[in-house]
Amino acid sequence: MWAEFLGCGLTALATYYVTSFVQTVFHRIFGHTRRINAVYDVHVAGHHAKYQTRLMTEQWISSGGHVMWYYALPLAPILIVAFTLLPVAQFCIHFAAMAWTIWWHIYLHKQYHLRGSWFVRFAWFRRKRALHFIHHRSEHKNFAIVEYAWDRLLGTYQSKAVGRRPDGASRACEKNHKTACREN
């Protein structure tokens, strides 16, 4: 019984980190190049363009489409292999963990851009949000949405915005308009 429970827990944990790694790598490879025009158009011409001047808004600004379908490219074969190799219970855990991980990445990413996010009370969220905002200012850094350890591994991690506060506001703004800085 404990072995099954441990196996399911390890399956969920491994699935989370593999899915997170896939998100980071695919964002790096396809998110900022024209290798897949549909992904580039939604991500750079859509999301990055709409949040170029204001990193946070009162409501999520839709990019007119989603790029989540491109996760199917590497994740579908992983699901097929898992289906053939894992017992039914572990496969169900694997599938649920993968679906939850994708949902969590989407949800947390939206929260980064919402001014009134309830997550702002947590230091881990503020730290991850600051790293994401660095990505908006330096698009070839911090490709991860949740697990920035992958960026360290890939050599794309940047912990501080050059000439800006970690949340994306300028240092001059910090000196003159502290309230406005927190909102931008």
Architecture overview:
The chain has one domain. 63% of the residues lie in helices and 0% in strands. By secondary structure, it is an all-alpha fold. The chain is globular, with a radius of gyration of 18 Å. The protein has eight helices and no strands.
Number of domains: 1
How many DSSP H or I helices? 8
Kindly state the number of beta strands. Answer: 0
Measured between the Cα atoms of the first and last residue, the distance is 52 Å
What percentage of the residues does DSSP assign to strands (E)? under 5%
Which structural class matches the secondary elements? mainly alpha
Low-pLDDT stretches are: 166-184
What Rg is obtained from the alpha carbons, in whole angstroms?
Answer: 18 Å
Summarize the structure.
With 184 residues, this protein is mostly helical. It has helices at 2-30, 37-50, 72-85, 88-113, 123-137, 149-154, 171-176, 178-183.
Which labels suit this protein?
mainly alpha, single chain, 8 helices
How do the strands and helices of this protein lay out in sequence?
Elements: H1 2-30, H2 37-50, H3 72-85, H4 88-113, H5 123-137, H6 149-154, H7 171-176, H8 178-183
